[in-house]
Amino acid sequence: MTDTLNVTDGARTTFAVTRAEALALGYPEAAIAQAEAQASAAAGRAAIRATIDQAVGDTPSIVGTLADVSGILVAGQMARVVALADHASNAADRAELDMLKALAGDADLVQICRDGLAALQAGQARLTASAKGIDTVFAEAMTRSTATAAILAARKEAVA
After folding, report:
1. Domain of life of the organism in this record (predicted)?
2. Could you give the C-alpha distances from 111 to 34, 108, 115, in angstroms and in order?
């Protein structure tokens, strides 16, 4: 449990007070208990994040992996849009393309995807995953995900 609480009773909020100070300020026990529960949950999240930071990777490393995977997914989605535009073979394919186009609003999604793929193929744009190697990116993503899942599962078991 943390030493300081952020307590609210609906009418007012006081930050960084101890339990004794909250009581002296006239906060009801229920408001203090809620603040303690929130502080405990925040401390639990901070502990999990610290463990992930130590065992899985620091935030910039994890963001880098996310960027690598996101690039692959964006390129894959661009390829999917172009393939659907050129070769939609059934109503489901056409409906999927229509839904994707609707997300783009007034933008010409198919042309944007064609241009993006052309830039990748011509080397005008480059994915970090291509520079690292897609096999390396997938392995890194799965390793980080597996390690994070293990930390979360251990925490869940410890709380249960």
Report:
1. Bacteria
2. 53, 5, 6
At 78-116, the pLDDT tens digits run 999 999 999 999 999 999 999 999 999 999 999 999 999
Q: At what angle do helices 91-103 and 109-122 cross, to 10 degrees?
A: 90
Quote the crossing angle between the two packed helices 59-87 and 109-122, to the nearest 10°: 120
pLDDT digits (tens, 9 = 90+) for 32-64: 999 999 999 999 999 999 999 999 999 999 999
Domain boundaries, the chain: 5-55, 59-159
Q: Please list the helix, strand and coil fractions of the chain in percent, rounded to the nearest 5, in that order.
A: 75, 5, 20
Quickly tell me which residue has 């390793």 as its tokens: 143
Q: 85 and 97 in contact (C-beta within 8 Å)?
A: yes
Task: Provide the whole-model pTM.
Answer: 0.75
